Amino acid sequence: MTEIETVEQFLRALESFDLDRALALVAPDVVYQNVPLAPARGVAAFERQLRGFARLADALEVELHHIAANGPIVLTERTDTLVMRGARAAFWVCGTFEVQAGKIVLWRDYFDWAQVVGRLLLAAPRALLGRLRG
């Protein structure tokens, strides 16, 4: 499997909330970071973040616009959409992945925090209404 295929499979596993399959594609010493937050280091810290996210969102949609590799480094441009109780919050993301021996050792995402917070705030009333309708 190429580095690009590894990243594509990883993103598809996240989309389907198949966290075990996603975790199988990362190295034990994986580093995950949403810039500028502090990175999660190691598979245990990464898994805690993934499982916490899965409890908050009902779905994740990943629209991959561009993907390119230069050796072990894979760059992505994508739109991620979080779905929470029927409310949708979509935002642009640029991701950097490093793949070694078929495993992701680094995943770093960059996005406009103001846009993400704004979209989540707009989605919050709809998500709350969806939760109340339950």
How are the secondary structure elements laid out?
Layout: H1 3-15, H2 19-24, E1 26-34, E2 40-41, H3 43-56, E3 59-70, E4 73-84, E5 87-100, E6 103-110, H4 113-133
Parallel strand pairs: 1-6
Antiparallel strand pairs: 1-2, 3-4, 4-5, 5-6
What does this structure look like?
The protein has helices spanning 3-15, 19-24, 43-56, 113-133; strands at residues 26-34, 40-41, 59-70, 73-84, 87-100, 103-110. It has four helices and six strands, in the order ααββαββββα. The protein is an alpha+beta fold. It has a single domain (3-133), classed as Nuclear Transport Factor 2, Chain: A (Roll), CATH 3.10.450.50. The longest helix has 21 residues, at 113-133. Strands 2-1-6-5-4-3 form a six-stranded mixed β-sheet. Strand 5 (87-100) and strand 6 (103-110) form a beta hairpin.
> Tell me, what is the CATH class?
Alpha Beta
**Could you say what the CATH topology is called?**
Nuclear Transport Factor 2, Chain: A
The helix content, as a percent range, equals 40-55%
Number of helices: 4
CATH architecture classification name: Roll
Query: What sequence of helices (H) and strands (E) makes up the elements?
Result: HHEEHEEEEH
Structural class: alpha+beta
Could you report the average pLDDT, rounded to the nearest whole number?
89
